[in-house]
Amino acid sequence: MTDNFNIRDNLWDPLYPHHSSHSDNLFIIVDSFNLELLIPTNQVSTKYSDNCQEANLVLNLMSLHFGSDELDNHIIYLDWRLTSDHTPLIIIIPIIKEHIQTKKWMIVKESKEEYIFVKELIKAIKNIETNNIPNIDHFNSIVLEFASLLENIWAKNLKIINITKHSKSWWNMNCSRDLETLTSRFKKSPTKGGVLGN
């Protein structure tokens, strides 16, 4: 957040001897947005007067997200003022390179792979011997064996899918369940014409 706030205060202008009550209000607003007032690397005036009888002022301020690494490194560029009476405030915020995934492995809903996966998983569950589990160690080995079977069945039926802007990366089983519940409620809701259709 940056602007000409038109407030004089010794908190950001060492040449001004007073504190303004307006600054307190500004700090409340800045804090409400979880921002922090920045201190420039070169503490110079930001508002310059053409009249030599009037003092130059610090009125332009900048606030950044609290705890940011870029705090206290913005610069007031005097040379860029040109014909303006205000100087620009500049901060460089680096953009970290990010790997954007374009493909993912998955089992597509209602696909042939999903059918085979479910069929093989049911078979694996049926083949688990649970009649005689004498101790916790034996139980743990059964769980680990099932986990390994599940992983292998899952890996065998995976398919590479291209991620596009239309992909629902946020969609999960809970979304499907809630949508199904909502849809069934609508179908059962009575209306003047009877039951809602599809």
Structural description of this entry:
32% of the residues lie in helices and 14% in strands. By secondary structure, it is an alpha+beta fold. It has helices spanning 21-32, 112-126, 136-156, 173-188; strands spanning 2-4, 35-37, 60-65, 75-76, 89-90, 103-106, 159-162, 190-191, 194-195. The chain is built from four helices and nine strands. A hairpin with a 2-residue loop joins β8 (190-191) and β9. The radius of gyration is 32 Å and the shape is elongated. The chain has two domains: 1-93, no CATH class; 103-195, no CATH class.
DSSP, total strands:
9
Tally of structural domains:
2
What radius of gyration results from the CA coordinates?
Answer: 32 Å
Largest sheet: 3 strands, antiparallel
Report the portion of residues in β strands: 5-15%
In whole angstroms, the N-to-C terminal distance is 49 Å
pLDDT averaged over residues: 80
> What is the string of helix and strand elements?
EHEEEEEHHEHEE
So how many helices? 4
Strands in their spatial order, largest beta sheet: 1-3-2
- Which residues sit in consecutive blocks of at least 5 with pLDDT less than 50? 190-198
Q: Structural class, please?
A: alpha+beta
